[in-house]
């Protein structure tokens, strides 16, 4: 590990300036991904700016019924938060399916969004990797691709985004709030992570020195049901092969609203708009769910070792939707649908 | 680059100078001689380095010591009460023979203590069906909540039994 300077930030502007002024400076959250990468040599920053003592650790109600989650809220605390458990079960379940209890106590909301791919070649600095070293090639293309992408990949990179939380946030239409050298902005979660294209080294649209300060969750109507389902190689403590975050609302046996995102399939949480289109206004039947899954997955391009992900994603989506719509039955909406 | 930090470890306030690259685990073991937390994988994957950090279970191999300046740490060694009587979770591990080589045990025990507090506070897990209801610590719940602690000797069956007893 290269030596680095450690700075403890006491306010947001100071943290942003301390990273912005040095190209080799990075923010430090819980460290559960960054420190791993320091050990592996995946990244070699010269300065770490510790943001964990900034006052960004609250979960607060927003006017209109939404919720603001501070960037430093620990994954465990967010999953345990009563409003998240009751109104945003998809998010609580996604958080609880990630990592382990002792890691979730360290991992932050901001760090979770910015965790990097678990592609083994990215983590092994002896192999070529366009994401770690632009232009060096992609070892995965001729390698073992069981865990890689089937949607939205490029000839430069076929990695998948590893976060469970981010998949739930994509389905929830969450918004990432940032504070950067050029000011503040609000970025919809679905536009926050990038597809690899010709620049796989850029996971997100963030600029250097841009700090995540919070994630905003829009209000959800009381009639909405949501769930997260993760499929992996063992029962617990493993990254997703495929995961599904789904939210639905029913009206007289018809699906009035649906929001779906897949994890484990792409370089970013994959919001399934084609599937949603099929679902909206259609009867809540197994046939509809099949058609929705197929509409989304028709463009899948599996690699040598991951063709199984396509039927697995389809079956997981059908199963989650079946469970959610059986649960809701023909519940009438009781509250105004707030966006 | 060096930094001077203060840690309260098993009730003792201690000052130590660390390189900024030092993890909490290495600071405890190599700089302070506190060897209860064990280094298994050094990458967050096995749980053997688990301690109670400000009262909550946490891995120490991916935490930088300098970032935890001022923290209060309890290791498995510090769980015993003032007279040296073992903590109920330690007692249960002994009674149920919940280990073989013992390497994972200090991490298992700290993790179990933290986990039992989480369950008492009503926090759900990935296998909890009712996210807002009280937690019933079934074997499936204990396995899920303890999945961050691996045991190469495969003492899992007795670990679950020990935690069941401690939970009562
Ligand atoms: C063994 C193991 C298993 C895991 N399993 C899972 C799993 O199943 N599912 C899952 O989703 N995750 C899993 N994880 C990943 C874990 O969720 C992430 O490591 C964690 O969420 C990262 O958060 P952190 O606060 O520790 O980030 P850090 O490691 O501190 O930072 C990660 C990145 O984010 C940047 N950063 C941090 N905070 C901010 C901010 N506010 N603004 C801008 N940049 C910031 C840092 O500069 C760094 O680049 C696992 C990790 C381990 C070690
Ligand atoms: S898939 Fe992406 S991250 Fe993995 S080796 Fe190829 S370029 Fe690197
Ligand atoms: S040594 Fe820390 S988790 Fe394995
Ligand atoms: S008792 Fe040997 S590793 Fe668990």
UniProtKB/TrEMBL annotation, chain A:
Protein name: Xanthine dehydrogenase YagS FAD-binding subunit
Domain FAD-binding PCMH-type stretches: 1-222
Keywords: Oxidoreductase
One Pfam family recorded for the sequence: CO_deh_flav_C
GO terms of molecular function: FAD binding; oxidoreductase activity
Keyword Zinc: no
Domain of life the protein comes from: Bacteria
TrEMBL record, chain B:
Keywords: 2Fe-2S, Iron, Iron-sulfur, Metal-binding, Oxidoreductase
Residue ranges annotated for the 2Fe-2S ferredoxin-type domain, each copy included: 3-79
Gene3D superfamilies per UniProt: 3.10.20.30, [2Fe-2S]-binding domain
Family annotation (InterPro entries): 2Fe-2S-bd, 2Fe-2S-bd_dom_sf, 2Fe-2S_ferredoxin-like_sf, 2Fe-2S_ferredoxin-type, 2Fe2S_fd_BS, Aldehyde_Oxdr_Iron-Sulfur, Beta-grasp_dom_sf
SUPFAM superfamilies (UniProt xref): 2Fe-2S ferredoxin-like, CO dehydrogenase ISP C-domain like
Keyword Glycoprotein appears in the UniProt entry: no
Pfam families found in the cross-reference section: Fer2, Fer2_2
PROSITE patterns: 2FE2S_FER_1, 2FE2S_FER_2
GO molecular function: 2 iron, 2 sulfur cluster binding; metal ion binding; oxidoreductase activity, acting on the aldehyde or oxo group of donors
Pathway(s) the chain acts in: Alkaloid degradation; nicotine degradation
Record's protein name: Xanthine dehydrogenase YagT iron-sulfur-binding subunit
Lineage of producing organism: Bacteria, Bacillati, Actinomycetota, Actinomycetes, Pseudonocardiales
